[in-house]
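Colleagues,

For the teaching module next term, I've prepared a clean inverse folding example: a structure given as tokens, and then the sequence designed for it. I'd like students to try predicting residues themselves before seeing the answer, so please don't circulate the second half yet.
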């Protein structure tokens, strides 16, 4: 359920690493084992909705107090289908945000994007990937709804929902399903007044058939699915749990985001998710190193991968 090959000798807690890569809003600590030799760490998950942003770090001089952040002396170059299109601009971070490099361009679907990064005497790193086509959901069906009254006189809704994928998108292989924070619920207060309900409650969800191959992510909250593991690749069945609503006749909807990720996107987030799942410390579930993080950065460490996304409304009724 979702709640709202060198020898590795140097280990450090990467709260600072998470701040560097900027991918995750929650500040979980993950143990990563990094090589002693000097390498650049490059992270970017890019999408057509945003200009390409690159987070850059290093593995040298690592200790538990932090790591070196490359500055404006670093050169980050972007290529599209093999042709150079941009040298990314360095942006100084403010507050808790770390510095990053940003492109003047938003990427487009299917085209191949490549990046190179160089900094001082570190080996130059490079990587490439594409953004898969958008996936479209042709139909959502509410298969079942159970409503329970809680001790506080509020209500919980359990929804079993089937998502049907449009036939044009049969070749999409990797899905990342996430909740969004834009809820629109309302109910009939009396015979002529509709009461809009600002939604401060919790929603969680899970794959309906837990025996299917999937992984729940905490660093990017949601479910990661290899479509080939589904018994019917044209359908995804999910269970949603909506808590503490003020009535048993609520209407409205809440959105979910379905990302279609590249193979590099899927392998990276799956490897991080496997480390989350296999960590056993009750006080810090990330405290035990367990799996290597998937890496597609040549001469360095990290992930450069693309995804597209589609938003679907799940209705209470």
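(Answer key — instructors only)
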């Amino acid at each position: 359920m979702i709640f709202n090959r060198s020898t590795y000798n140097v280990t450090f807690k990467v709260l600072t690493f998470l701040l560097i890569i900027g991918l995750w809003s929650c500040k979980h600590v993950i143990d990563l084992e990094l090589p002693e030799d000097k390498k650049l760490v490059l992270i970017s998950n890019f999408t057509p909705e945003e200009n390409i942003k690159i987070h850059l770090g290093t593995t040298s001089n690592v200790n538990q107090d932090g790591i070196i952040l490359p500055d404006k002396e670093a050169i980050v170059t972007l290529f599209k289908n093999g042709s150079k299109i941009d040298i990314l601009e360095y942006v100084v971070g403010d507050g808790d945000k770390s510095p990053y490099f940003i492109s003047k361009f938003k990427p487009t679907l299917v085209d191949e994007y490549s990046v190179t990064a160089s900094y001082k005497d570190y080996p130059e790193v490079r990587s490439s990937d594409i953004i898969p086509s958008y996936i479209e959901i042709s139909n959502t069906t509410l298969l079942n709804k159970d409503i329970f009254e809680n001790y506080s006189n509020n209500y919980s809704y359990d929804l079993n929902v089937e998502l049907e994928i449009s036939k044009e998108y049969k070749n999409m292989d990797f899905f990342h399903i996430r909740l969004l924070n834009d809820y629109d619920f309302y109910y009939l207060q009396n015979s002529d007044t509709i009461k809009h309900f600002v939604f401060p409650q919790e929603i969680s969800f899970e794959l309906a058939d837990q025996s299917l191959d999937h992984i729940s992510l905490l660093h990017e909250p949601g479910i990661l699915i290899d479509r080939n593991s589904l018994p019917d690749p044209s359908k995804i069945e999910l269970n949603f749990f909506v808590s503490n609503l003020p009535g048993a006749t609520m209407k409205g909807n809440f959105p979910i985001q379905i990302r279609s990720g590249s193979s590099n996107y899927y392998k990276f987030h799956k490897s991080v998710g496997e480390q989350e799942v296999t960590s056993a410390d009750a006080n810090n579930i990330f405290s035990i190193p367990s799996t290597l993080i998937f890496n597609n950065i040549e001469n360095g460490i990290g992930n450069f991968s693309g995804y597209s996304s589609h938003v679907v409304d799940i209705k209470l009724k």
